Amino acid sequence: MLKELLKLQYLGLDGGLINFIAENFSTQERAFLFTGGALELHFKYNAFSEEDLITFYDEDNLKKANEYAEDLILKSKENNIQIVSYYDDAYPVNLKKIKQCPLFIFVKGNLDILNTSKSVACVGTRRASETTLKLVGDVVKALVEEEIVIISGLAKGIDAQSHKECLVYGGKTIAVLAHGLDTIYPKENTALAETILENGGTLVSEYPIGTKGHKSHFVARNRIISGLSEGVIVFEADEKSGTMHTARFAYTQGKKIFCPNVTGSDEKLSSGVEKLLNTESAFPITTGSDVIDQLFINKTNSLNIKVNSTTVKELEFISKNRGISIEELVDSIILNYIEGERGNE
Question: Can you tell me whether residue 1 is helix, strand or coil?
Fold first, then answer.
């Protein structure tokens, strides 16, 4: 279905219509759509506008769409870039929950960690103070020790520092980029990007190969940084900085936001961090353990209560009836609980 989805996107169809086609059309019907069958399918589903029908009978445009899809698939493969659609099992569960989630993501590296249940985004200014950079190291170290994946944007300053500290302590990190994965911006972080991949990390973008970075892309990218994560740490940011876009996205997505409530003896909190803390939009933290407690320990304690409330005899009875071991039953309870928690967020 990948090629057909790429063609539909190229043709400029509305996202809702693309979703309808993906969810309701059979494999044969999707193929028929591009070979003169649009009107017949419209009689069956009443799905297309007059403009849509004109699009599906424009042979020159259909040819261009087909060439675009084939070329993109080929070039992505040549550059070791995986194209993941919204309808693929590998598409990140957290990302599906956000508004305006991308139809496609383009991925280099470890696809599996995009669906980790333990991830934290670390963001902030490109011109961070030495105090903040040291704090990034301390916080990231604590997170990595708990096997939490670090997500950031590969920008100068706090983003790059978060990725680097994660790698220093043997962790895995995801860099979300605002352009095609055939280039790296800023160029000075090219080696860092390669190191991320070499150590089991991931580069991800919603933009296909050949796409240059634009200002609007960097803003849009921030919704993916927060969307992939379980929570966001804003280490240092001016009130009108791009980092605050990430904080706003995180807030609307229902993510927990954290800000350090510590400074050097002669320093003040950055204006963005101060605003987030003063408006109670963020939890104040001093260590990585504060983040871990809020995001992960509390969930684990809730899970323990649920499991412990079921007696051993009940577990034995249920496992016997299902024909599975108690260990397999407990694993099932844990999995269902985690999925339920995700659904409630």
Answer: coil
Cα–Cα dist 209/190, whole Å: 16
- Phi, psi angle pair for 145, to nearest 5°: -60, -25
For 94-139, give the secondary structure using H, E and C. Answer: HHHCCCCCCCEEEEEECCHHHHCCCEEEEECCCCCCHHHHHHHHHH
CA distances from 244 to 26, 45, 120, 282, 323 (A): 43, 44, 16, 12, 52
Average pLDDT over residues 240-246: 91
Q: Please give the C-alpha separations between residue 252 and each of 99, 153, 188, 248, 293, in angstroms, as whole numbers.
A: 9, 19, 33, 6, 22
Q: Is the pLDDT of residue 276 over 70?
A: yes
Token code pair at residue 53: 């029908």
CA angle at residue 301 from 304 to 170, to 5 degrees? Answer: 110
Which residue is it, tokens 């160029």? Answer: 187
Secondary structure of 16-36 in the HEC alphabet? Answer: HHHHHHHHHCCHHHHHHHCCC
pTM exceeds cut of 0.85 = no
